[in-house]
Amino acid sequence: MEIKKTRITINNHLDKLQEDLMKQINELEEEGTSKICQLLSSLEKKEKEIEECQNSILNIKKHTTDLQMFLSIKQIEEDVYSKEFCKLQWTFHNESVLKTPYGIDVDNDGNVFVVGHRSNNVVVISSDGKRHREILTKDECPCCSTCIVECHKECRDIVELDDVILNAKTSNALFKIEETLVEVAENLQKISQHQHRNLSTLKEKRKEIEKEIKETRMKINNHLDKLYEDLMKQLYVLEEQENSNGSSNVSLNEANRTESPQQTHIYAVSCRKRKADYSFIYD
């Protein structure tokens, strides 16, 4: 009876451990799934924003003039880079050189070219943001015919505005924006696919762990069953031995108490003989 109670106590304890462990695993799975779903939702939102930007650029290139395209590149840049698609690498702030940045472009070496609206110049900044150089002064910036007459009488080699805006729709700045959007869209797609795989892997891992826990519990139960069976066999053997020893002792005692007539006669003869011996001594 005591062995059965102990076995029941062990089973209850193991059931509680298994239940708590499965509960923790389910909570971890739900937490991980929730985080992945939130990330996927955010990625989907960013992908839609990129698609909208790409469609906007296509519409602008299709329906605007070269001048409108030239003047709108700055706004396109602000719209794209304000979406937080890119990570901030460095900042440049020096009003003695650059005031009211208006346009930006990047070459293949990572150098950044910035147009200063109020400073009327173009400044190139190194890829690490630590060095800069003015490559276009205010006397070389675009201006209207009135400004040319009033402020640039001595200037030579003036370039027509039509020539400046001629390739606005195929400019390097616009190409960089489009290239950035494509690259970011591809990266977001890769991240999304990776997170979907993580979601599937998370579910598979949870199933594997649950299966392993059940198999381990089954092995423990089988081991306990074997121990219980062996112990009960030993108890039965001991009980049979005790019963056998008890029966032998009882039979021996009963045999000692039961005397045959021959044994009684021998005992009487022996007593008389001893008495005759004693009489011989005293006579």
Structural description of this entry:
By secondary structure, this protein is of the alpha+beta class. Helices cover 70% and strands 7% of the residues. The chain is built from 6 helices and 4 strands, in the order ααββββαααα. The protein has helices spanning 2-63, 66-81, 145-151, 161-164, 172-257, 261-282, and strands spanning 101-106, 112-116, 121-125, 132-136. It has a 4-stranded antiparallel sheet with strand order 1-2-3-4. Strand 2 (112-116) and strand 3 form a beta hairpin. Helix 1 runs antiparallel to helix 5 and helix 2 runs parallel beside helix 5 (172-257). The protein is rod-shaped and about 140 Å long. The chain starts with a helix and ends with a helix.
The geometry reads as rod-shaped
Helix and strand run: HHEEEEHHHH
- Give the termini separation: 74 Å
Class computed from helices, strands and strand pairing: alpha+beta
Backbone CA Rg:
51 Å
Number of strands: 4
Give the averaged pLDDT, no decimals. Answer: 75
- Give, in spatial order, the strands making up the sheet with the most strands: 1-2-3-4
- Major β-sheet, in short? 4 strands, antiparallel
